[in-house]
Design goal:
Layout lengths: L1 H13 L18 H10 L4 H20 L5
Helix pairs in contact: 2-3
């Protein structure tokens, strides 16, 4: 999708963290690692940006979501 490159560019220029996601509603909608890499590459991400979007940023998000909330 051409908008992936546009969105990636906007995210990079604004300093936002990128994730690759499929908007899955069922198991068959999930992206394989190869397809997710292809989507990231097609969006114009460099090898290091792909690694960030596919492995590092998802871990950061999961850590934030599972961290106990302080009261």
């Amino acid at each position: 999708c051409l908008c992936n490159g546009h969105n990636a560019h906007l995210a990079k220029t604004s300093g936002a963290r990128l994730l690759v996601n499929s908007d899955a509603h069922q198991e068959d909608d999930l992206l394989s690692p190869a397809l997710a890499t292809g989507v990231a590459q097609g969006a114009g991400l460099s090898a290091s940006e792909r690694r960030q979007a596919l492995t590092i940023n998802p871990r950061i998000l999961l850590e934030k979501l599972t961290r106990p909330k302080s009261t």
